[in-house]
């Protein structure tokens, strides 16, 4: 009897020793999704800078499904408010935070020092840290291509810009060079607003430029106000960030669009894989981060084909915006690009001059 009892107990223990691990394994909860956050400098609108980053966030969610949980905070001013929001997101357990605005760079770096285990992506920033990477796009490549289209259709252009920082100056110069490559008499008059998103002021600047003779408008601000102003006045405009034909069905000649989904997905995947590293990315047409598309009804087929052919040349490395056989002068008559030379990335990133044909001045 005692031997049978011992045998039964031994058998039960043996069964338990095999069954418990399997039972625990079957009931183990799935790992919690990685939390990724995005901070937006302006309200989320149907088109514009913020909309393109929102498309990037949605691409991350679609690609990675239940492995991630994404969220965003919109209309966050640069400066102290941004620092507070970024810190709150880090405290809430987000493992990667994207901060797509130039003025978010310093707040991002400050918060990153407090949360070394959180990854930060400073979009349009240029300062890195062990847990802060930077990324930007060569928007100026799309600007040049849009300038080719604009130069085929107009001679006087107006340009509504946020701040005279290198990124904006690159775009103004590239647009002007593109126009002048097909229309040597083209001029570009610029208004700097000193802010990224203010639809009423963007509209007023657009109206003022058209009153001064602008036949086509371009802009480096965050809303659709310039496009709608051009539509209202029967003028032409180049969309920026997003395709804006819904706001300017007759006005839009082309859109310079930004595509963030692939980059954002790869960076979140790297956090999931444990392979994320700090670094700097500056991608353009060949990398699929910038593209011209959304040609409007007033663009002849020949112009569309010409622009797309130049875009193909750019993607293949056969066309560089800031390179010239004849050289380029600034609007004060100084040599900006020597004949037969091209600018380095460092030269482009530090650009502080305006090309010949730009009707504006920079504070020195």
Short description:
With 364 residues, the protein is α/β, with parallel strands linked by helices. It has helices spanning 2-27, 49-64, 80-91, 105-114, 139-153, 166-182, 199-211, 225-233, 261-273, 301-315, 345-349, and strands at 34-39, 68-73, 96-100, 119-123, 132-137, 156-161, 187-192, 216-220, 236-241, 252-258, 280-283, 290-293, 323-324, 328-329, 335-337, 341-342, 358-359. The strands form 4 sheets. The chain has a 7-stranded mixed beta sheet, sandwiched between helices.
How can the largest sheet be summarized? 7 strands, mixed
Query: Widest sheet: strand order?
Result: 12-10-9-8-6-7-17
- Intertermini distance: 102 Å
Radius of gyration: 26 Å
Number of helices: 11
Instruction: Report the sheet-strand fraction.
Output: 15-25%
Helical proportion?
40-55%
| Strand/helix succession | HEHEHEHEEHEHEHEHEEHEEHEEEEHE
- Average the pLDDT over all residues and give the rounded result: 92
**Uncertain regions spanning at least 5 consecutive residues:** 1-24
Structural class: alpha/beta
Number of strands: 17
Inertia-based shape: globular
